[in-house]
Amino acid sequence: VMLPVLQEVQRKYSELCRITDVHDVPYARYQQLMDDADVQLDQLYSYTPSMNSLLAMAKGVTVVGGGEPENYEILNETELRPIINVLPDEQDIYQKLEDIVLHKERIPELSAQSIEYVAKYHDHVKVARQYLDFWEKH
């Protein structure tokens, strides 16, 4: 659903938007392509970021996908909003993709928030400690 909408945005703003559509590449190449990206489109019907999104966010890539308010409420997060949340509606997707293309100055802030979000909620040592703490209590 999102790719055809992104292609519409790219046709309208060809000088501002470049699409890298990735399929069946080795993981090392995938990492390189992600390192060169400013924005990644992810899962449309998700309420929270996927593992792929978290990897991108850890690299400072802005994610368009599942970042519903409930995601932040579960975490009691009131400040960070790094994910550009889209509804499963072509018009909403178009508006939000067009907005980021026309306001690229937002990308550095979203990038910084993405890195902070992953460090705060998905650090591997912190998560492992939470598992151990839970195990020890039960």
Architecture overview:
This protein is mostly helical. It has one domain: Glycogen Phosphorylase B (Rossmann fold, 3-Layer(aba) Sandwich), CATH 3.40.50. 56% of the residues lie in helices and 7% in strands. It contains 7 helices and 3 strands, in the order H-H-E-H-E-H-E-H-H-H. It has a 3-stranded parallel β-sheet with strand order 1-2-3. Strand 1, helix 3 (51-58) and strand 2 (62-65) form a beta-alpha-beta unit. Helix 1 (2-12) packs across helix 5 and helix 3 crosses helix 6. It is globular, with a radius of gyration of 16 Å.
List the helices and strands and how they pair.
Layout: H1 2-12, H2 27-35, E1 39-41, H3 51-58, E2 62-65, H4 69-74, E3 84-85, H5 90-102, H6 107-122, H7 124-137
Parallel strand pairs: 1-2, 2-3
Helix pairs in contact: 1-5, 3-6
Quickly describe the structure:
The chain has 7 helices and 3 strands; from the N terminus they run ααβαβαβααα. With 138 residues, it is mainly α.
* SSE arrangement, N to C: HHEHEHEHHH
Structure summary, number of beta strands = 3
* Average pLDDT: 95
Query: Strand pairing plus helix content: what structural class?
Result: mainly alpha
Poorly predicted regions: none
The structural domain count equals: 1
Q: What is the first-to-last residue Cα distance?
A: 44 Å
> Could you name the CATH class?
Alpha Beta
How many H/I helical runs? Answer: 7
The CATH superfamily title:
Glycogen Phosphorylase B
Strand percentage lies at 5-15%
Give the proportion of residues in helices. 55-70%
